[in-house]
């Protein structure tokens, strides 16, 4: 027998230090790259803070709360608690009756009415597969996504035999009011409007499932990226039809992402001096994924979670907390961790790795 190799503590320590140094250098490189990619957007606007209570009149919980002695922050907090207590009612809706699909585009009137006619008309791009009329995936893009983005994923899924519907989320591309250059009304320092936009996104997504079901589809999946992943989680937590779920860049929280993210500084500036993080959490509780983990765990679902270790927008600790909480509830999940950030996920080679993970998951799970 050969001699037993003994470890050298000094050498092992050197290896460990070298690994840490390389890891730190790589992280510094990726964080600089994230900052550079984020800086390409120069038209972020700091908007005035507003509790936005005028946006709450159409909520199902609107008549369940008193005015909290004229304190708008306290009133919005009470509305959140009432909405969370009966979130099924908060995200309930009348199924649209004017679905129209032609030339690869689905249109219908949103069940949530806003002051903006453009936003009230829902648009979705349709990529039907001729190979399988049973499986369909709904795609929810990231915040400020352009109409062409995520289309490559839709076409790939179609080639693999899975029909795909890409939803334009509220205030984006064709749904954007003319005074905007970015989808600022989807997430902003107007607190109740942000909730209303999220509620609308969930209801529009569920309406898309209604249309797919009316076309004969039976097995449904959803993939959301960044803000779209939040919308996707809330949708799936309130719709048992979604059996296969992909959360591509995700966070357990909503308020904390806005408070700490690299690209949300303009929103923080609007919040500054008006509200602290703890109160912001209370005001956005109804749109935070952590609020619905128990509800989600009570359904039969398969889930794929993907996050980046160098994400400076959705900090990795928020993603890890989501996974910890999901595992405590025995949620059936697969986790993929990539050595990239929020923006660099869309760059080579990570975008291809990401697409492979998403497509292979749906092929197995639908």
Give a brief rundown of this model.
The chain has 13 helices and nine strands. It has 366 residues and is α/β, with parallel strands linked by helices.
Structure description:
The chain has 366 residues and is of the alpha/beta class. It has a single domain, classed as Alpha/Beta hydrolase fold, catalytic domain (Rossmann fold, 3-Layer(aba) Sandwich). The chain is 41% helix and 14% strand. The protein contains 13 helices and nine strands. The protein has helices at 9-38, 72-85, 87-90, 117-120, 151-159, 191-214, 227-237, 255-260, 265-271, 277-283, 293-297, 316-328, 350-365; strands at residues 100-102, 105-109, 121-127, 135-140, 163-167, 219-225, 242-248, 302-308, 333-338. A nine-stranded mixed beta sheet has the order 1-2-3-5-4-6-7-8-9, sandwiched between helices. Helix 6 packs across helix 7. It is globular. The chain starts with 8 loop residues before the first helix and ends with a helix. The model has no long low-confidence stretch (mean pLDDT 94).
Total DSSP helices: 13
Return the CATH topology.
Rossmann fold
Parts with pLDDT < 50 across at least 5 consecutive residues? none
Overall form: globular
Query: Helix and strand string, N-terminal first?
Result: HHHEEHEEHEHEHEHHHHEHEH
Please give the order of strands in the largest beta sheet.
1-2-3-5-4-6-7-8-9
Overall pLDDT metric = 94
Helix content: 40-55%
Number of strands: 9
Number of domains: 1
SSE class: alpha/beta
Major beta sheet summary: 9 strands, mixed
What's the CATH architecture name?
Answer: 3-Layer(aba) Sandwich
Gyration radius over CA:
22 Å
Strand content: 5-15%
CATH superfamily: Alpha/Beta hydrolase fold, catalytic domain
CATH class: Alpha Beta
Measured between the Cα atoms of the first and last residue, the distance is 53 Å
């Amino acid at each position: 027998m050969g001699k037993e190799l003994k470890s050298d503590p000094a050498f092992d320590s050197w290896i460990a230090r070298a690994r840490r140094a390389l890891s730190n250098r790589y992280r510094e490189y990726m964080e600089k790259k994230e900052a550079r990619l984020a800086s390409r957007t120069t038209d972020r606007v700091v908007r005035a803070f507003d509790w936005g209570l005028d946006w709450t009149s159409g909520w199902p919980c609107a008549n369940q709360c008193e005015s909290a002695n004229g304190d708008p922050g306290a009133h919005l907090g009470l509305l959140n608690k009432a909405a969370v207590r009966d979130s099924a009612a908060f995200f309930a809706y009348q199924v649209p009756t004017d679905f129209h699909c032609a030339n690869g585009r689905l249109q219908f009137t949103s069940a949530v009415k806003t002051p903006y006619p453009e936003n009230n008309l829902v648009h979705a791009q349709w990529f039907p597969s001729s190979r399988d009329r049973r499986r369909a995936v709904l795609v929810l893009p990231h915040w400020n996504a352009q109409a062409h983005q995520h289309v490559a994923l839709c076409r790939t899924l179609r080639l693999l035999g899975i029909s795909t519907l890409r939803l334009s989320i509220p205030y984006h591309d064709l749904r954007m009011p003319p005074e905007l250059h970015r989808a600022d009304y989807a997430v902003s320092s107007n607190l109740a409007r942000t909730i209303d936009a999220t509620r609308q996104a969930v209801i529009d997504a569920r309406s898309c499932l209604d249309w797919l079901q009316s076309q004969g589809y039976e097995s449904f999946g959803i993939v959301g990226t960044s803000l779209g992943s939040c919308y996707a989680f809330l949708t799936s937590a309130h719709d048992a039809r979604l059996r296969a779920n992909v959360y591509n860049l995700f966070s357990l929280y909503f308020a904390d992402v806005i408070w700490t993210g690299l690209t949300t500084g303009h929103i923080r500036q609007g919040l500054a001096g008006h509200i602290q993080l703890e109160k912001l959490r209370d005001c956005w509780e109804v749109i935070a994924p952590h609020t619905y983990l128990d509800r989600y765990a009570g359904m039969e679902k398969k889930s794929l979670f993907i996050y980046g270790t160098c994400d400076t927008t959705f900090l990795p600790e928020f993603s890890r907390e989501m996974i910890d909480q999901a595992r405590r509830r025995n949620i059936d999940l697969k986790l993929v961790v990539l050595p990239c950030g929020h923006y660099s996920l869309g760059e080579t080679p990570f975008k291809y790795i990401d697409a492979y993970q998403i497509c292979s998951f749906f092929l197995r799970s639908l």
